[in-house]
Amino acid sequence: MEFLLIIIVALLLIIAVVVVFNFLGSRKAKRAETDALKQRAYGPKDPFSTADDDAVRGDPRQLKPGDLVELRGETFAVRGTLRLSQSGFEWTENFLDTGTGRKAWLSVEDDPDLEVVLWHELTGVTLTPGPDALELDGRRYHSDEAGSAEFSSTGTTGLNQRGSMRYHDYEAGDERLSFEDFGSGWESARGEVLARSEYRIYPTDPAPGT
């Protein structure tokens, strides 16, 4: 009888220990959840972050061949993507095609804010980069930055899979003028910065295993 009493007391002690540990673990988990909510609500964050817009309208930084982009009501397919890097800084240029003859390029960079620019290639332009300012069609563009970068190419871009290039960019307000040389001389394009409301991205499903 005394042995049975000892067993019962031991079982009660074990149950009490388990209950205490479960209580402490539950309280710790609730505290961690509360701290996480406070951090999310009151923690430091970028007030100009585009995360909310990206969740609704798609993240242009993740564009890849096969994705669809709606620009001002017109749908383009991404045929190819260039990923460029210079001293740790990276940006992308995406070749777009409607399939009905309309083609364009879309560049995406964070510097530090997200900037998405719609580009159209220029033909018959005799301007060459170098001066501090250039005039085109009555608009005066001022030199912004110049340099060289390494690139990798996926999909259809008309370029090798890897290589180097040089560039010289000009700007006038929200308009852009760019010169790029991928080894066969300067090519020029004129661009305009897009507002977040002017484009929407429809990504394709990732390939199995990626």
Derived from helix and strand composition plus strand pairing, the structural class reads alpha+beta
Please state the oligomeric state of the protein chains shown.
single chain
Rg over CA atoms? 28 Å
Q: What gross morphology would you assign? A: elongated
Strands of the widest sheet, in order across it, are 2-3-4-5-10-9-8-7
Helix content: 10-25%
Number of helices: 2
Order of helices and strands: HHEEEEEEEEEEE
Pfam families: DUF4178
Domain DUF4178: 64-194
Transmembrane segments: 6-24
Organism: Gordonia tangerina
Task: Give a verbal description of the structure.
- The protein has an 8-stranded antiparallel beta barrel with strand order 2-3-4-5-10-9-8-7.
- It folds into 2 domains: 1-44; 58-202, no CATH class.
- The radius of gyration is 28 Å and the shape is elongated.
- It is α+β, with helices and mostly antiparallel strands.
- The chain is built from 2 helices and 11 strands; from the N terminus they run H-H-E-E-E-E-E-E-E-E-E-E-E.
- The protein has helices spanning 2-42, 51-57; strands spanning 68-71, 74-86, 89-97, 103-110, 114-121, 133-136, 139-155, 162-172, 175-181, 186-193, 199-202.
- The chain crosses the membrane at residues 6-24.
Features:
alpha+beta; membrane; DUF4178; transmembrane helix; 2 helices; transmembrane; elongated; 8-stranded antiparallel barrel; 210 residues; DUF4178 domain-containing protein; single chain; 2 domains
Brief sketch in words of this structure:
The protein is of the alpha+beta class. The protein has 2 helices and 11 strands. Residues 64-194 form the DUF4178 domain.
